[in-house]
Amino acid sequence: MLSGKPRALSTEQLAAYEILRELDPFADWLYRYHAAGWNWQPDHLRYIRSELRRVTAGELRRLMLFLPPRHGKSEMVTVRYSAWMLEQDPTRRVIVGAYNQTLANKFSRKVRKICRPRMELSKERTAVDDWETERGGGLRAVGVGAGVTGMGGDLVIIDDPVKNREEASSPTYRSRVWEWYTDDLYTRQEPGGSIVLIMTRWHEDDLAGRILNSESGPDWTVVSFPALAMENDPLHREIGAALWPERYDVKALLDYKQVLGRSFHALYQQEPQEQEGDFFKASWFNDNIVREVPVEAQRVRYWDKGATVDGDFTVGVLLAKENGNFYVEDVERGRWTSHERNQHILRIAQADGGDVAVHVEQEPGSSGVDSVQEIIRLLAGFNVRADRVTGNKSVRAEPLAAQAEAGNVKIKRAAWNADYIDELTVFPNGLHDDQVDASSGAFQKVAGGFYFWTTDDD
C-alpha cells in the first residue's frame, strides 16, 4: 500500500483514519486516492464494501449485487475494487465481463488508468481487452459470447450482462448469456477464485435467476438495493425512502418511474416479476388496449384520496361499462395539497359531465368524514357519493382481476397506460396501490348497473 495521508478529508474523517485503515483497507484506499469528486460514504456503498471485505479475505466466493443505475456500483466495484486488488497483488488475474465488448473495454481502460501510476505494467501485453502487469497479473475484458482462452481468473466480475429489456425478453439471448457464463467464465476460475455478479434484474430467468435456481444457488450471497425501499430493506430504510437521496431523491425517482413505466421495477427496484403479479398480468391489458370507448357506456369516476403531497397519490379512475365489457377510460393521478386536490376533483367532474357518477373514498374517523363531506359540498349539483371502504385491499381487487383475466377489461390508449399497468402487475407487492384501489372501487360501483349503487351511506 502506498504511503501518505488522506487527501480532501474532513477533520472527523482524519480522526477516524487509522481505524478505517485497519478495518477497511479498500475504503482507506478509496478515501486516500479517490476522494476528490467522488462520494464513497453512502450507506449502500459501505454495505457493499463490508461484503467485498469477505471476498478479499476469501470468506465469500460468490456475490451478487443488484442496484439501480448511477448509484456507484460499477465505479466502486468493477473499476476500483479491481484496481485495488491488482495493487495488493500484481500477480492476481482479473476478468471483467459485460453485455458487449465495448462496455467491457470501457471498464478495462478505467482500471488500467488507475493502475498505471501504481505498478509496473507490461510493455508487451498492452491491448485494451488484454493487458498485464510486469508481475504476470493483469486484466482480461470480454463481452457476452467472447471466449477467455489462455487466462484464468482469481477475480471474475460480471457487470451488466444484459443490455435492455429486449435482450432480457429473448429466451435465445438468455440462453446465450447462460452458456457464456457456464462454458467461458465459470470454467476460467483459478483455485479459490471469486465471482462478483453486478446486474439489473430484467427477468426472472436472467443470469442471476438461473444461477439462483441452479444447484449452486445456495452458494451465492445476494445484496439487493431497490431505489425506493421496500419491506425488509437491508439498510433498514422506511418503505419508500430513496437509496441515495443526496443524488436521487424520492421526487426524482418517481419522475423516472413516470417515464419508464414498468421498466422502472427492473432498472430501479430489482423486481423482475412485475409482469406476472399475484393478481394481474400485463398480457390481460396489453392485448386489450382500445382507441375509443362506446359513447353510450355507463360511467363512474372513483377517487382514492392521498393524504399529503409527500405521501400516497390521489387517483381518480373513470370506468365505463357496456355490453359486459369494462373500459378504463381515464386515470387522474397526482400529489396535491387538500385544497389543490379538491379543486382538481371539481375540474374533472366538470369535464366528465353530469352523467358521470362520482364516488369518493371516505377514510376512517371524523377527519375522514369531514374531508369527504367537504368534497361533496364542493360538487353540489353532481351525482356524488361517499364510499366508506372496509375489508382487505386484495379481496376488493379480486372481482376486477377476474374480469380482466376473462378479457373483459379494456384500457383506452393514453400516456398513463404504462404506469397504470405497471402498478396493477406488481400488486400487492408494489410501492403504491392507489390506482388499484381506485379501479376496484370504480368496478364495484359500475358492475351492478349505473343506477344501483351500493355504498355504506345509501
Describe it for me?
The structure is a single chain. The chain is an alpha/beta fold. It folds into three domains: 1-41, no CATH class; 42-267, 3-Layer(aba) Sandwich (Rossmann fold); 282-447, Nucleotidyltransferase, domain 5 (2-Layer Sandwich), CATH 3.30.420.240. Helix content is 39%, strand content 20%. The chain has 17 helices and 15 strands. The strands form two sheets. An eight-stranded mixed beta sheet has the order 3-4-5-2-6-7-1-8, covered by helices on one side. Helix 14 links the parallel strand 13 (357-362) and strand 14 (384-388). Helix 15 (393-405) packs across helix 17. The longest helix is centred in the N-terminal third of the chain and has 16 residues, at 73-88. The relative contact order is 0.09. Mean pLDDT is 87; it is low at 1-9 and 449-458.
How would you describe the oligomerization state of the chains in this entry? single chain
The total beta strand count reads 15
Count of separate DSSP helical elements: 17
Provide the CATH architecture of the largest domain. Answer: 3-Layer(aba) Sandwich
Q: Which regions contain 5 or more consecutive residues with pLDDT less than 50?
A: 1-9, 449-458
User: According to CATH, what is the topology of the largest domain?
Assistant: Rossmann fold
Biggest sheet statistics: 8 strands, mixed
Global shape:
elongated
Helical content class: 25-40%
The end-to-end span amounts to 77 Å
In total, how many domains does the architecture comprise? 3
Tell me the name of the CATH homologous superfamily of the largest domain.
P-loop containing nucleotide triphosphate hydrolases
Question: Can you identify the CATH class of the largest domain?
Answer: Alpha Beta
Radius of gyration (CA) equals 27 Å
Strand order of the largest sheet: 3-4-5-2-6-7-1-8
Which strand-content bin applies to the residues?
A: 15-25%
